[in-house]
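User: Here's a chain of 501 residues. Predict its fold as tokens.
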Amino acid sequence: MRMNFILGTVALAITFSGTAAATTRCERILQRFGARLADATCTESPDLTTTNPNTTPANNSIQGLPPFAFTPVTDRGVIAPDALNKTPITKIVPGLQINARIASDPHGEARFLLRLPDDWNGRLVVAGASGTRSEFNGDFAWSDYVVQKGYAYASQNKGILNLYFPATGSADPLACRLNPSSTLFVHFYDNDPGQEFSRWAGFMAEAARLARRGLDAHYGREPRRTYAVGTSNGGYQVRKAVESYPELFDGGVDWEGTFVDAERPNLLTDLPPAILNFPDYVASGRDPNSTAAKNIRAASYPPDIVASATSSMWTNYSNSFWEVTQCQWQKRLDPTYDTYGAGTGTYNYWARRSLSDVGAQIEAFETTGKIRRTLITVAGTMDALLPIDHHARAYARKVAAEQAERGDDDEGDGKAAYRLYEVQNGNHIETYKSPPQAATPPANTFPQLEFIEPHAQRAFDLLVDAVEHRAGLPPSQCIPRGGAIASSPTQAGHCASLFVP
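Assistant: Prediction complete.
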């Protein structure tokens, strides 16, 4: 596969040949990577921020792939939409950008991104990717923020491409419909043979290894510190990084990370109740006192925000995430289940454990809570894809239990500190919040919600200060609406209510 784009408005993209004389910076660094990268391009970029439109390649820009397999522009807007909450850019950042495949991946899908600012601060940030998104997923939220501070930035795609629309539609045994009323079916690459979710952690580590090699080749030394950042499934990658690879990472910030546990909770225990009860909730006129609404909230979901007879926050999640995510995970982890015949909302994880190896499948990539580097979780109370009590708080409980069992705490040298910063009314999808100062909020957006990105970025700065200067981290806390992470919070611990009008 070869990219058909050229990065940088005045840049020269160079594909390395082993017989070419190593005369330029790009040629030298690609030579150092050798056979570890495939289809690699290196660019002398005038600006590594997204002010340069060529920093993020166009959707569908890899020749030979079907539409929607590679969607960088779409992916960067999933976390931090440009029109709503894009990181402020106050300077240009010249440097090198490398795009490539990770050659060791037998499926040929694992991708790698590396940005090397000319004015390097000696540190590296490695980003995870949410959902099934590409290595450009963090361009707005993370890359723009850190490269302006001088960090080198690396990212990867968990070893998978995104999705495609199969020609056979619903006849494709691995296809998932987009929502319960849709006639459109998509095929996720991560449901293909050999694409087990247990591979995700390894690609986060491999990105760090590759980046360190690139930094050494370019700057003459490896980074002094390496930090992991990521959102949703990328947040899961951050957790696994600080659990499993302390030799590669000095700490991490996970933003709405996915909790994975073979007992409970997990997505296969949480999503079916929402899917099952939502039609009855709609039939009730979206009555918050209906049995269906109570059943959804009992499954840990935050309350709905109803804007009109046809518009609500839960409706957004039902239309875009609940069923298609349940299908995606079930087809990967329990493929013998009859998805649409037996039902998505009636999937019973506990019953299936005795009929399939779904429990073992989840156990193979579960998070342990055994963190060996400082970790900060930032999560919103109104997350209706990864409800806070079953994901962020569940992970915090697991970390606390592991530390108590070891007699560990977060004080003193060599101890791994953990913090959970809860964003009051924060939500999994930033686009669900109305644009700032909107006189009339667009349909399906909600001014009551709060952005998480500024708090995640602040958490990153606090992490760096704690790791490098032994600064004390503010305690775990509820960040009030319009507030910020505080050294002396007014509400330590968890937010008292999931929703504050």
